[in-house]
Write a structure and sequence with these properties.
Radius of gyration: 21 Å
CATH class of the largest domain: Alpha Beta
Low-confidence stretches: none
CATH superfamily of the largest domain: Type I PLP-dependent aspartate aminotransferase-like (Major domain)
Strand content: 15-25%
Distance between the termini: 21 Å
Shape: globular
CATH topology of the largest domain: Aspartate Aminotransferase, domain 2
Mean pLDDT: 94
Number of helices: 15
Largest sheet: 7 strands, mixed
Structural class: alpha/beta
């Protein structure tokens, strides 16, 4: 696979953008190949400027659940862009989008922002304002955006690149505990009695690789928050509208006080949201005294893309059963391939998200994820990409499927994975 044009553009970009990218994981820093510079996406396929075609299992980090450039989403955006780009003023599509999100996700109220980071930052500020408390609990390996309060022992590219440039003064009120470990949570509450405003968690972690929370763990976490007058925040930036119309909450039957969204909610455009119980949400300005603002929040083009996406998901509930079938097939056949190759591994999957961990048999938290064979995963990722299967370059990210994927696409993934295993035996 040749990437001559991609290399030229990427090298030139480094003169004007730090590292040549606008988000670190895109740089393929831990691989020995140049990141393909993408020029086009259609369905489950993307194309680079060198003419290479890939089956995409990254999907803009999970955002493109309908596949790239879904016709209904594109047409809706075209209709809007002739008359509306940005106003910084109310528009009718904001109302329609808010109503659709609240009814579909079964929440009382929602506030739209421009990214997942803004959503989680707003949720924590809101929790502190509502409870009058200062501290938050987060889990090692969970990634809630790039604000300092969340980067303490975070997953995603922070872990892969071993980045530690955070303001210790800001994170002094951030308490980090172990995912799926109730003892560590109870200890945190005991040592910080009446000081914890909220617990924020990815109910299915996607940034230490895919690591699902245990059902009992989330249920007891809900009880602990109730007991101590703390809010429970589900970060569903990745899982919202991906695992179901109600996100991961439907899988666990646990209701948080606040939930954050991103990725899918914007239909591929920059968007985030925080939603939840009315009495809490009404604390946001201008109704309440917890400040949050954004000139581009509720942008009409973004709202239109998100509306078209969620509406299509709502009108086609079979999409989720099809995604479960395809992802289950991928998990089952990869398990057979790796088992036949006598590899030690585990595959964590929830719905249409999955991660392969080499060198370990079980991953339930960040410490376990870090014990996996990172070098072997890098070799695997590089081999897959060179052979036109686009996967995350980082162990601590998830792979995704879209409704545009077919059984043939899954079989091609498995075929290339089998070739990788054969190459390792030689």
């Amino acid at each position: 696979m040749r990437l001559d044009k991609s290399k030229e553009v990427f090298d030139n970009t480094k003169r004007y953008i730090p590292g040549g990218v606008n988000s670190p994981v895109r740089a393929f820093k831990n691989l020995s190949i140049t990141p393909p510079v993408i020029s086009k996406g259609k369905g489950c396929r993307i194309f680079d400027i060198d003419g290479n075609e890939y089956i995409d299992f990254v999907l803009s980090w999970g955002a493109m659940i309908l596949g790239h450039c879904d016709p209904d989403v594109v047409n809706r955006m075209k209709e809007v862009v002739e008359d509306q780009i940005a106003f910084g003023a109310p528009t009718e599509i904001e109302y329609k989008m808010a109503k659709l999100v609240c009814e579909t996700a079964q929440i009382d109220m929602v506030r739209f922002v421009n990214s997942g980071t803004e959503a989680t930052m707003t949720a924590v500020r809101l929790a502190k304002g509502y409870t009058g408390k200062k501290k938050i609990v987060k889990f090692a390996g969970c990634y809630h955006g790039h604000h300092d309060i969340f980067l303490k022992e975070a997953g995603s590219a922070v872990a892969e690149l071993r980045l530690k440039r955070i303001d210790e003064d800001i994170v002094q009120n951030t308490i980090v505990v172990e995912y799926n470990n109730l003892d560590s949570v109870e200890k945190a509450f005991k040592e910080n009695k009446d000081e914890i405003a909220a617990v924020i968690i990815e109910p299915v972690a996607g940034n230490m690789g895919v690591v699902p929370a245990k059902k009992e763990f989330l249920q007891v976490l809900r009880e602990i928050c109730n007991l101590h007058g703390s809010l429970l925040i589900f970060d569903e930036v990745i899982t919202g509208f991906r695992l179901s119309l109600k996100g991961a909450r439907a899988l666990y039957n646990v209701e948080p006080d606040l939930v954050t969204f991103g990725k899918i909610i914007g239909g591929g455009l920059p968007c985030g949201a925080v939603g939840g119980k009315k009495e809490i949400m009404e604390c946001l300005a201008p109704q309440g005294n917890v400040f949050q603002a954004g000139t581009m929040s509720g942008n009409p083009i973004v709202m239109s893309a998100g509306y078209a996406t969620i509406k299509k998901l709502k009108e086609n509930p079979h999409f989720y059963s099809n995604l479960e079938m395809l992802a289950g097939k991928l998990e089952k056949e990869l398990t057979q391939v790796f088992s036949n190759s006598n590899l030690t591994f585990c595959i964590n999957r929830v719905g249409s998200m999955l991660t392969i961990f080499f060198g370990v048999e079980k991953v339930e938290n960040f410490e376990m994820a870090k014990m996996s064979d990172l070098d072997l995963f890098r070799s695997f990722a590089e081999y897959m990409i060179k052979n036109h299967i686009y996967v995350p370059s980082s162990q601590f990210e998830a792979m995704f499927l879209s409704v545009a994927h077919s059984e043939n696409d899954v079989e091609k993934f498995v075929e290339i994975a089998e070739e990788f295993c054969s190459s390792k035996r030689k």
